[in-house]
Design goal:
The structure holds two protein chains of two kinds. Chain A has 13 helices and no strands. By secondary structure, chain A is mainly α. Chain A is elongated, with a radius of gyration of 27 Å. The N terminus and C terminus of chain B are likely disordered. Classes of the chains: A mainly alpha, B mainly alpha.
Chain lengths: 251, 490
């Protein structure tokens, strides 16, 4: 039967009766199971070819020993960053372009993401990129910025997050996160897991002291302290490494 | 339970009793769910659009900030609206194409109520900030498990219906549905693999750029296999039905189906161009994205050319208006997408409003318009009475179309402007626009324009809902006069 005849069928429902006898109908389109199998193979190839090599040293993203896993307080802060959907307005990816390096700093190296579970590269910049925001502003700036963005950044369009100043973190909850991250592959030691409550308090108290110097009173277990710890960590490993490299490379 | 009797045209199966009891009750349920969730999802879209340009609309509450409502918008329009639309069309057309009732009424019901339960859980958890952060895969792991279970129920019902079919040959729409059922299962399960920390929180088994690659392999193919292939299946059934013309080319449908399902899956890395993802993966993503233009346009041309000789009906038939504009937008966004996947273009477009405009030309233009066309075609046939307001669809069509144009034109302009201003460097080698906020403020007029366009689109959808409500609540077919609608589709 010619293609022309097959096309002349009045409705899709009856089109199925036309062209009967063509090879692809006999071997494929009349057989649901085989059709499903071939479709499955067809949609699998691309994913396999692109994803599996990520697990090889030669083809996958680089790793490095100058990147360290997040501390428990930073893990807690990162969870808050995710909960509030910060990544929906702020990217964490400085592209290797002149303008991006001028605006944000060194472009992001692959290894800097090696402990990011989940990744937070973002897909939209309603606000500026945060990849290199660590150390850019004092802790007190972030505290005020979350309380009322326009108090430190006039004209900002970011909503305020005052509840972060009140709500507290739960050390046992964060220990569960550290345990799960370890199971997923982050190299935390037994001591790291056991020391979660102490680590939280120690790092948190440091931030509380710096905030106190700016006249802000808070406690180490507030959510804002954890978020500040995470934000101040962003891009720091990479920047330190690249600065050392540059210092060593120039005579 | 309402059913439609269809005499079987095949003498061989006449022994079966010559009539098939189609399950149209489940189709009605999915249709009404689509209309309801469509309105909710689009309303949340309008709210987040307002929040972008006027921050007080965040209301100062944790549950209503942009960061929590934006995933609610995307999940509602993709999985609640588009998902229920797909199921509506599949349950209606599949029974007729295969000349059999669905494999199991119980599985149909489990599928329907399970899916609505997932939507309700999403609407509760996302405003609470319970999220995995992966775009269109935000829902927490217990809901992910539920999605997998419901999907398997749907798949059993789907393949069971194929197994008990009375028509040997599988029509092209069924191929596209099949790719939807299979691929979404694979994508969802692989991308959601995670280690639970608590009942509400988990961490993915993939780290860093590998996680990003897996996510965008999922994310772009959610576009491909949730918003494209099932809707192409709907186009292949409902467009020829509405136009009362056969599909233009059977051969073209074979070629573009196999090319589309093979090529689509490779394109994810175009979301990570200029990132630190290994270059070979970025290049593969770019090359396959450009190649995707061919099978995409194969589908568009097959749809448009199906109307050959029937173009005059566009003037009077609102259903065809919706469908033709949908297919045209499909062609436009599948031209734009490959363009934006070219590294140099992506360097300008990435992270800007241009991407938002692109997404919505596909979502509002293609998915939304073909859904409205299908719904307006189905309602009189399912309920056996004419629309309460027969001119409603035409008004809805113009409101929606003008709304889309306002939306995407404003986002193109805004995206190009911010993209250019972010990267401009002056003669002294410094940023021409060093203050990020200055650029943000210049976008405000475009955001207001987008808000107007989006609101018009929402109003159109609400008008449709009211029209359907009045139709269903209206007089029964007996009281409506002689033969008010064309006989139910055979």
């Amino acid at each position: 039967m010619s293609n022309h005849e097959a096309n002349r069928n009045p409705t899709p429902a009856t089109a199925s009766d036309a062209g009967y006898g063509r090879w692809h109908r006999r071997v494929l389109e009349n057989r649901g199971g085989l059709f499903a199998l071939l479709t499955t193979i067809g949609i699998s190839i691309g994913g396999i070819v692109e994803i599996l090599p990520m697990y090889t040293a030669e083809w996958g993203p680089e790793t490095a020993d100058w990147v360290s896993p997040y501390t428990p307080l930073e893990v807690a802060g990162r969870d808050i960053y995710i909960r509030e959907g910060c990544y929906l307005c702020h990217s964490q990816m400085v592209r290797p372009m002149r303008s991006e390096i001028l605006r944000y700093g060194e472009w992001t190296r692959a290894a800097e993401y090696m402990y990011d579970r989940p990744f937070l590269l973002g897909s939209r910049r309603l606000g500026p990129d945060l990849q290199r925001v660590g150390g850019k502003y004092p802790d007190a700036w972030h505290y005020e910025h979350m309380r009322d963005p326009r108090s430190v950044s006039p004209g900002s369009v970011m909503p305020p997050y005052p509840w972060l100043l009140e709500r507290t973190i739960d050390p046992e909850d964060i220990r569960a996160s550290v345990v799960a991250l370890r199971r997923a592959g982050t190299p935390y030691t037994d001591e790291d897991v056991a020391g979660v409550p102490d680590a939280l308090r120690t790092q948190g108290e440091g931030i509380v002291q710096r905030l106190a110097q700016a006249g802000i009173e808070t406690t180490w277990d507030r959510e804002i302290v954890a978020l500040i710890a995470y934000l101040q960590r962003l891009g720091v490993d990479g920047r330190r490494h690249l600065e050392q490299q540059n210092a060593g490379g120039t005579p | 339970m309402e059913s439609t009797s269809v005499p079987s045209p095949q003498p061989a199966s006449a022994a079966a009793g010559a009539s098939i009891d189609y399950d149209d009750d489940i189709v009605k349920k999915f249709l009404l769910a689509s209309v309801l969730w469509g309105g909710v999802g689009m309303l949340v879209g309008v709210i987040v659009a307002l929040q972008i340009v006027w921050w007080p609309a965040n209301l100062g509450l944790p549950w209503t900030t942009f960061g929590r409502l934006r995933p609610l918008h995307t999940n509602a329009v993709i999985f609640a609206f588009a998902g229920n639309v797909c199921f509506t069309g599949i349950y209606y057309s599949m029974q007729r194409l295969l000349r059999t009732r669905m494999y199991s009424d119980r599985l149909s019901a489990l599928h329907f109520w399970g899916w609505q339960l997932i939507i309700v859980l999403a609407a509760i958890t996302l405003p609470l900030g319970l999220t995995q952060s992966k775009e269109y895969a935000e829902l927490i792991w217990p809901i992910d498990v539920l999605i997998a279970v419901v999907w398997v129920i749907f798949a059993i019902n789907f393949f069971g219906t194929i197994a008990i079919r009375r028509v040997k040959h599988l029509y092209v729409a069924i191929w596209f549905y099949m790719s939807f059922v299979i691929t979404i299962a694979v994508l969802h399960i692989v991308n959601s693999l995670a280690v639970p920390a608590t009942f509400l929180r988990s961490y993915p088994i993939y780290a860093g750029l590998t996680d990003a690659l897996v996510q965008w392999w999922y994310g772009h193919n959610a576009v491909g296999f949730f918003l494209t292939t099932p809707f192409l299946g709907l186009m292949y059934y409902f467009l020829p039905k509405a136009a009362e013309r056969p599909v233009y080319s059977y051969r073209l449908s074979i070629i573009h189906f196999w090319a589309l399902v093979f090529i689509y899956i490779w394109t994810g890395p175009h979301h990570l161009l200029y990132s630190a993802l290994p270059d070979w993966a970025q290049t593969l993503g770019m090359v396959f994205s450009v190649m995707l233009l061919a099978p995409s346009w194969g589908g568009m041309l097959n749809g448009l050319l199906t109307l050959r000789g029937a173009w005059d009906r566009l003037r009077t038939d609102a259903v065809l208006k919706f469908m033709v504009v949908a297919v045209t937008f499909y062609g436009m966004s599948t031209f734009e997408g490959p363009m934006m996947s070219i590294r140099a273009v992506n360097g300008l477009a990435h992270y800007t409003n241009w991407v938002i405009g692109h997404v919505h030309s596909g979502a509002l233009g293609w998915v939304g318009m073909i859904s409205f066309g299908m719904i307006y075609w189905l309602v009189p046939r399912l309920w056996g009475r004419p629309l309460a307001d027969p001119d409603g669809p035409t008004r809805h069509f113009w409101l929606g179309t003008i709304g889309i144009v306002l939306y995407i034109v404003s986002m193109w302009a805004a995206g190009l402007m911010e993209g250019v201003q972010w990267r401009s460097v002056n003669e002294a080698g410094q940023l021409a626009h060093p203050i990020f906020l200055d650029i943000v403020h210049r976008l405000a007029p475009f955001y207001w324009l987008r808000l107007i366009g989006g609101t018009m689109y929402l109003v159109g959808a609400v008008m449709m809902a009211l029209n359907i409500w009045r139709t269903i609540r209206g007089p029964a077919p007996d009281a409506a006069g002689p033969e008010p609608v064309p006989a139910p589709a055979q």
